Structure formats: C-alpha cells, structure tokens
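User: For a reading group we're discussing how well predicted structures match intuition. Take DNA hydrolase. Before you show the prediction, I'll give you the sequence so everyone sees exactly what went in.
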Amino acid sequence: MSTDTTPETIRYTADVVLFADRHVLLIERGWDPHAGCWALPGGHVDVGETSLQAAVRELEEEAGITVPAADLLQVGAFDAVGRDARGRYVSVAYTATLPALTEPAAGDDATAARWWPLAALPDLAFDHAEIVAEAVKR
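Assistant: Thanks. Here is the predicted 3D structure of DNA hydrolase, as structure tokens, for the group to look at:
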C-alpha cells in the first residue's frame, strides 16, 4: 500500500456491454490508446452527466444504437490501477440485451462497429474482456 498522499487525478467513464442473440456489440477504436483494437462502446462522463446518461449517449454516438436508460443494468465499477495507459480511469459498466441483432453504425471515435459472437471474441482493449465476463454472469 502506498503512503503517498498526493491527490490523484481520476477520470470518470462509462462502458456498455450490449448483447443480442449470443453476440456482443464492439467498436473499433479510432485512436490511441489501442487504436485499431476492439472495445466496448463507452467514453468520458461529461460535466453534469451521470454515468448512466453517458452510457446511453456513448452507445448512440459510437454505434448508432439507442437503448433507454431504464433498460441498462449496472454491471459494476472497474477501477484497477493501470487499466488505462493514459492515467487513472474509473469506469461504470452497464449491460442490456436486445431482442434481436440491430445494425450498428460507427460514429464519433469508432472506425467500425459490429456484433461479435460471444464464443469468438477478438482480443479486447483495456480490461473490457473482464467487463464482458462480468456482464455474462448477470
């Protein structure tokens, strides 16, 4: 345990694990860290926003899919030291399940968005494989 009492800058983010027909929605990151890698839709919580509101917004911006906030269930908070190369990030992850696959449309900082079979996921950026695993348990 560290004895350093210097305040740490912590960035607040939200991620979404969206399921449909035994698939999970992923976006391809457009810039570093992990440019070109697959990740969950998500991003920074804006000023005046809750993590739930950010999750809804980021899903729409990055994948073109709208899920009402009431349909998103919290998976948990992910705050492991070193989970992001840019510094300390804490992410609150949410999950929902759609009744059928819906065609995504990549936007914002995503260069692609697509559904991946849960049984054949690519390597994921950050700790997103752990977040998906937690969401599957629910």
